Amino acid sequence: MNVVDVLGTPHAYERTAPTQTPITLVFIHGWLLSRAYWQPVIQQLAPNYTCLSYDLRGFGDSQPGRAMLSRKASANASFGSAQTSASRESTNQLPSSAGGGFVPATAASSTRAIAPQPRPGYTPSDYARDLEQLLETLDISNVWLVGHSLGGSIALWAADRMPDRVKGVVCVNSGGGIYLKEEFERFRAAGQQLVKLRPRWLCHLPMVDLMMTYMNVAHPIDRAWGRQRLMDWVTADPAAAVGALLDSTTEAEVHRLPQVVSRLSQPVYFIAGQNDTVMEPQYVLHLASFHRLFQQCGQNVVQLPDCGHLAMIEQTDLVVEHLQAILARHVADQSLQTIAD
């Protein structure tokens, strides 16, 4: 795991080895989650694309103190037995339930810093600014953004902020643009309660992680992911957890998102779960319709059958298949254009 200071907050990230493809895929997680959930997808794509995943400010290991603890845990784990290593390799699609995220054995730790700046807020645009600073610090200039749920909104705002740097966007379980007052008020109230009712000792109660394997998915996911969801939920920074929820769901913010999509010149695609009860396909289609690729019949939307709100975990192979197909349509042409420029 690597750590870099962005606007005064340590940001934990992982980057796979360079490949011959001059594109970096940047993966952005959703609310109360972490970079860990992208690792099954990244493991399949890393042979062909450099992949960058990171924890949003206030989540996962991107919190003061959390990054250092996770790095120490990673260092201690490196002295484990060969049998433990072999066991971990055989289940490398599952995260560590104790370390806060997946840590590749080949990752090198480093810390780089940029000049301190005022701490931003928690809107998708604020998080897009964080991402812009992260990419500038890491000197990454040619990217496709892949964002899940709230991460999809952040990806869209980041593409709007960085039209030269961001070559395309894929939103997974992410849509919106329609503000329904009563529904949003209920969602915001429930979300705030979810943040408040999360004492650390929940991690030690039996069966709580099992309950998390049923939440917002079409079918129960592996229990290791339940433990990961529990850990991410309990340890998220309270200010970030509440701030990201409230700042991204105001009426003004919801209505800004279609405007952002409509002015993007980059290709934008959407992957939806047909059984997603958090971001129903109708809302994904609505937001996608504001982009030129929609062309009245949803050509930039893919719906995954038998899939809830965690497509990258529930339907990993299908998500990878569609990402590869999307990238195949555009990356070659974009690479030629980059060389020409």
UniProtKB/TrEMBL annotation:
Positions with biased composition (Polar residues): 80-96
A Pfam family that this protein carries is Abhydrolase_1
Which segments constitute the AB hydrolase-1 domain? 24-183
Instruction: Give the GO cellular component terms, alphabetically.
Output: membrane
Outline the segment boundaries, as ranges, of region: Disordered.
80-101
Query: Which UniProt keywords are listed?
Result: Hydrolase
Gene3D superfamilies to which the protein is assigned, alphabetical: alpha/beta hydrolase
SUPFAM superfamilies associated with the record: alpha/beta-Hydrolases
Q: Which GO terms describe its molecular function?
A: hydrolase activity
Q: What is this protein called?
A: Alpha/beta hydrolase
Species:
Thermoleptolyngbya oregonensis NK1-22
